[in-house]
């Protein structure tokens, strides 16, 4: 999971000088080993999304694993799409989302809510443009067989301390049994949110099948990139 300054610059499409400046000014999470910096890929992507920094599709192909990455469509099918989620603030919305997610009985929903709120206390997962992507800061192993994403449309917008100051009415909640699955899904959502067609579909709060089709197109685009 360790990434060098040069790697980080390529993944975030900026210069190495900018990476050093972000470490000092923007609190880019880094560990110092001697006179060199190293980054955790999951934390790097987490930071980039919270600061609306565009990431390279190379994040999809460089984890070194031979296992197939989870697709966005499959993860949404597992996690589900939900409409008119109730809540008047960040905590009550997250509590309702955790309640409706199709989690196995052995998953402690109360604990999952606690770690989600703990992550929010470190910095909002409000992405901007009315969207939030709540998840734990350091992915934990939970009693679920595969990654899932719950896409939720709220009954009314709530303040999520998003970077653009706008309330959110749509959120993706990620749960994964592995760090790799978490990183893969977070990367795919980041890619999707920069796709105009996907965003146009999402903003209409469409039927589930339309969302699944839009997600499949994103997966196909990523597959095409990997093939080249």
Write the SSE topology:
Blueprint: E1 2-3, H1 5-11, H2 16-25, E2 31-33, E3 36-40, H3 41-50, H4 72-79, E4 81-85, H5 90-100, H6 109-122, E5 126-128, E6 131-132, E7 148-158, E8 168-175, H7 179-192, H8 196-203, H9 208-227
Parallel strand pairs: 4-7, 6-8
Antiparallel strand pairs: 1-3, 2-3, 5-6, 7-8
Helix pairs in contact: 1-2, 3-7, 4-9, 5-6, 8-9
Explain how this protein is built:
The chain is an alpha/beta fold. The protein folds into two domains: 2-55, Multidrug-efflux Transporter Regulator, Chain: A, Domain 2, CATH 1.10.1660.10; 72-227, Mannitol-specific EII, Chain A. The chain is built from nine helices and eight strands. The strands form two sheets. A five-stranded mixed sheet has the order 4-7-8-6-5. A three-stranded antiparallel sheet has the order 1-3-2. Strand 5 and strand 6 form a beta hairpin. The longest helix has 20 residues, at 208-227. The protein starts with a strand and ends with a helix.
